[in-house]
């Protein structure tokens, strides 16, 4: 890692201009594509980041200047913010649709959905700029500010633990850093720049039949998101099993950079979909399976009926058990400095070490969010908002969120991938005996984003970027993104109703999301009975209700596994196994192929070369695919705009 330079700030006018560029170019594109095709903004972040960085590097060269690596990294990552946060105001319109949908009527929830979540009048004008949207907007902004405070503060504690003390590799952050360094300093790192360019050209050409034809011309030559071999398994008698392979080079890139032991552990977790599920089907444990179900169906249904509880227990074990084993690291984080070692030699603010101050701030922000969530529930449901729900909110937002972030950060630090644990909030509210409606719409922040920020802090170290400069840029990017999101969403809504045939994806997906969003409050408030639920919903309710065997037992077993693997030095990572269990098996297979390619490269080129260049190869794969996706989406935007204009 580099020492941070004491020179002038990396938050320059060029960085601010790049953020504005992302807001003006990529944010409306992300909103439009989501409304028309259902494409998640996260799918185009890679394209936005790389094309913007290349554009500003090129402009700087033409102007006889150069971007510093620090500017490049801040620019690269914060353009991603303008895309990832782009649907903020679309969420307000979606909430209004949920509140007035046919499911709200059939479930008897019309008029029961809180005013601070969404207006309940189906005949309001198509604009966000009206008084009925002020309460939802204020609640959304207040919760966003508190959650970002939670993330930024807890991330520094995690950074000190996992980056400074345990020195986890954070392979994804290494790729971000290498991308910024090599593209900004091509004149210095000529060998790396040449290798990245060659790999990027290959990735660009490879992605033409994969994404170019799909996005630009609506033609599918290679299956997206995966080729599904599940029907073949069913034909040979493996009922309930699923298998596939994704052709996305970004998954190959992830497999290249993650440690081999983690990759193998993920693969072992993925074997549950090939080996365990046929057994569970035969034993009538996996009763939701039906002939003809594909990989996606089996993935979702197995989570619903089998894996949700174990994933919670295993995730907590994979995060907490290593902390107990390495308890000295935790002690060194907070004890008074007695040496000048790296762990104790940290900055202070108002006399407090930043680690202690960050932990205090996290507790303050999370408790504030808990109180805020409780107050807005009490405003509309004082009869059910007892003090035990304030305690529950605090346990979820302060306690579980921190535990999950410790586990998720370890996962990202070792593999670059996070852990997917659905339905934690739902299970907690159901288990509490809550019988109201409002709490289902509160901002219960049970997962958090501190693990992602920890990776950002690690990349700051590798690029020599001051974390304060990065955070200042973010504090410019996200408010501007929110403001422009409101403006863009309002414009799109004024053009045509949402949902409608003008925005085809909303006409399909929003109704499905409304059904699931309203199922929970309808059931917990007694408006629908268990016997009235469909089979999937009943299976999920039963799964979430059986906590001792579904959560506590995996927690105990997982903790024992962590202890034995550490003591006996067995090359197995429980956090990797948990990742493999939480994602579709097609992704696991492709990442494992990437790991095999990495081992071949390491054997042919040597360990030293491999360590030096593997992140460059991974960055090149992302660069080529990102440029192709950006070009294809531009063509798609033009085509769809022309098609819709005719109507």
UniProtKB/TrEMBL annotation:
The chain crosses the membrane at residues 12-33, 39-63, 75-99, 128-146, 195-216, 236-257, 264-283, 303-325, 359-380, 386-407, 473-495, 501-520, 551-572, 584-601, 613-638. Keywords: Membrane, Transmembrane, Transmembrane helix, Transport. The keyword Membrane applies. InterPro entries: OPT. It is found in: Membrane. It is a multi-pass membrane protein. Its main location: membrane. This is Peptide transporter. It comes from Staphylothermus marinus. The lineage of its organism: Archaea, Thermoproteota, Thermoprotei, Desulfurococcales, Desulfurococcaceae.
């Amino acid at each position: 890692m580099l020492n941070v330079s004491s020179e002038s700030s990396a938050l320059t006018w060029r960085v601010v201009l790049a953020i504005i560029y992302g807001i003006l170019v990529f944010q409306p594109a992300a909103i439009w594509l989501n409304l028309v095709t259902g494409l998640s903004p996260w799918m185009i972040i890679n394209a936005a980041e790389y094309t913007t960085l290349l554009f500003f590097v090129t402009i700087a060269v033409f102007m006889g200047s150069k971007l510093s690596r620090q500017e490049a990294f801040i620019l690269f990552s914060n353009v991603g913010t303008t895309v990832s946060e782009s649907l903020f105001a679309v969420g307000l319109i979606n909430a209004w649709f949920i509140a007035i949908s046919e499911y709200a009527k059939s479930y008897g929830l019309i008029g029961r959905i809180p005013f601070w979540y969404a207006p309940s009048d189906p005949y309001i004008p198509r604009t966000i700029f009206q008084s009925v949207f002020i309460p939802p907007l204020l609640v959304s902004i207040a919760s966003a500010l508190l959650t970002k405070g939670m993330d930024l503060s807890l991330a520094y504690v995690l950074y000190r633990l996992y980056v400074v003390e345990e020195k986890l590799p954070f392979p994804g952050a290494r790729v971000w850093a290498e991308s910024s360094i090599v593209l900004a300093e091509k004149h210095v790192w000529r060998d790396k720049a040449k290798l990245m360019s060659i790999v990027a050209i290959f990735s660009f050409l490879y992605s033409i039949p994969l994404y170019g034809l799909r996005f630009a011309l609506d033609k599918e030559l290679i299956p997206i998101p995966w080729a599904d071999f599940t029907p073949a398994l069913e034909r040979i008698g493996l009922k309930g099993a699923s298998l596939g392979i994704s052709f996305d080079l970004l998954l190959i890139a992830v497999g290249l950079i993650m440690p081999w032991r983690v990759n193998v552990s993920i693969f072992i977790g993925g074997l549950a979909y090939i080996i365990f599920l046929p057994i569970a089907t035969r034993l009538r444990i996996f009763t939701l399976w039906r002939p003809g179900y594909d990989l996606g169906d089996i993935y979702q249904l197995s989570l619903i009926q089998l894996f949700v509880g174990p994933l919670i227990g295993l995730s907590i074990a994979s995060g907490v058990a290593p902390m107990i084993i390495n308890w000295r690291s935790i002690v060194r984080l907070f004890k008074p400095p007695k040496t000048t070692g790296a762990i104790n030699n940290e900055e202070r603010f108002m006399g407090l070490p930043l680690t202690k101050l960050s932990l205090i701030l996290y507790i303050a922000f999370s408790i504030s969010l808990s109180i805020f969530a409780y107050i807005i529930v009490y405003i509309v449901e004082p009869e059910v908002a007892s003090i035990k729900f304030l305690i529950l909110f605090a346990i979820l937002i302060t306690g579980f969120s921190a535990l999950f972030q410790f586990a998720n950060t370890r996962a990202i630090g070792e593999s670059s991938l996070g852990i997917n644990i659905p339905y934690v909030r739902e299970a907690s509210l159901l288990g509490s005996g809550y019988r109201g409606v409002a709490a289902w719409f509160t901002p219960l922040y049970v997962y958090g984003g501190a693990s992602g920020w920890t990776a950002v802090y690690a990349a700051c170290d590798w690029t020599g970027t001051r974390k304060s400069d990065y955070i200042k840029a973010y504090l410019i990017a996200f408010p501007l993104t929110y403001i422009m999101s409101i403006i863009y969403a309002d414009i799109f809504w004024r053009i045509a109703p949402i949902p409608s045939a003008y925005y085809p994806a909303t006409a399909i997906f929003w109704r499905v999301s409304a059904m699931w969003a309203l199922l929970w409050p309808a059931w917990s408030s007694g408006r629908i009975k268990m016997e009235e639920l469909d089979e999937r919903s009943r299976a999920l309710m039963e799964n979430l209700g059986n906590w001792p065997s579904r959560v506590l037992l995996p927690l105990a077993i997982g903790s024992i596994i962590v202890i034995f693997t550490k003591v006996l030095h067995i090359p197995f990572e429980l956090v990797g196994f948990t990742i493999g269990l939480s994602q579709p098996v097609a992704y696991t297979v492709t990442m494992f192929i990437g790991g095999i390619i990495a081992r071949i490269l390491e054997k042919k080129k040597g360990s030293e070369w491999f360590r030096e260049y593997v992140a460059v190869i991974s960055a090149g794969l992302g660069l080529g695919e990102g440029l192709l996706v950006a070009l294809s989406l531009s063509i798609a935007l033009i085509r769809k705009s022309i098609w819709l204009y005719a109507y």
